[in-house]
């Protein structure tokens, strides 16, 4: 698909600006970004393009090749969310910039995503950060990348209504090619650690299970963690669950009366410790140790945090039987969506075929399996240098 031609078809002339923002996977450290923990995401090569030309009609035109509905919204002092419409995401960014006193004028926008939407690869963070990055560039606003990340998270929390942590927006903005970001979600300190996968590749397996309950269950887990924290704070001077180590939690578990909430806290604290071990394993080139931690992470998300489901478990159980897979786990919020696996490159095709057979047999429909590159975070495409390949994704 030639994106410039698509833009011309919709708006009648070539776009003046073009941006790309990737999706992300999280290698390990799940459901702890909103508990002040350490996470390890990376940006992937799939993502969302945003092509834009300013107009002098004071109208924001929203069109996406991934959705039928297009809309025109006049420039205004503030904006309202419309039900579950896709354009709430870029509109939320516009609303936040406007409320912060930034003067915006009309834009013709075209979004085109090749990251599976609603599958846990953060297409929502991609569209938010792409929009924030674009507005910042076009209107010469002068925010730095971290400001844009925080705004994008705020849009998801307040305008959309999902209490996500900062990991997704951070990863799709700051991602570095062939590196994992080790991000402290409390201090926002981070470092990029080269992945060094050697003869292994990162496989993304989309279970193709609709995540219909994902947002409400996500907010439920968020509330459960808040409740565990409140219980623990009656005796312990902590700000986040991840301020505790597993030993401290064990000695203070009597503070949490509710068994389910205690299980959630155990997952969070253990998972945070696993990430510390995973950083060391990856830095030392110990891919097998890293893979074991991925499996342990999945088991904890399955048994303690209860966010996996039979589709994700089917994928991970299969991976455990494969000699050429070193580790696998669900990635993202769970309740369906995607899993990741580290697979020996020479055996990837065989892995894809066997997994597809097995999964289809067990679940009744096929998964989608991608060999994924680890890419860069959000960037502007320069049309004067844009090759045909860059336009056509
Ligand atoms: P995920 O972030 O896991 O992909 P979400 O449910 O959080 O799933 O976000 C998906 C929503 O983001 C879509 O339903 C749509 O509203 C919006 N979105 C993402 N990518 C695009 C796109 N290319 N065009 C239009 N809307 C998009
Ligand atoms: Mg999302």
UniProtKB/TrEMBL annotation:
Enzyme Commission code: 2.7.1.6
Domain GHMP kinase C-terminal, first and last residues per copy: 279-352
Pathway involvement of the protein, from the record: Carbohydrate metabolism; galactose metabolism
Primary localisation category: cytoplasm
Positions of the Galactokinase N-terminal domain: 5-53
Domain of life: Bacteria
Protein residues bound to substrate: 30-33, 218
GHMP kinase N-terminal domain ranges (all copies): 88-175
GO biological process: galactose metabolic process
Binding site for Mg(2+): 124, 156
Pfam families according to UniProt: GalKase_gal_bdg (PF10509), GHMP_kinases_C (PF08544), GHMP_kinases_N (PF00288)
Annotated site location: Transition state stabilizer: 24
Reactions performed catalytically: alpha-D-galactose + ATP = alpha-D-galactose 1-phosphate + ADP + H(+)
Binding site for ATP: 64, 118-124
Enzyme category, top tier: transferase
GO cellular component term of the entry, any: cytosol
Membership in a protein family: Belongs to the GHMP kinase family. GalK subfamily.
Role, per record: Catalyzes the transfer of the gamma-phosphate of ATP to D-galactose to form alpha-D-galactose-1-phosphate (Gal-1-P).
HAMAP family per the UniProt record, alphabetical: Galactokinase
Stated name of the protein: Galactokinase
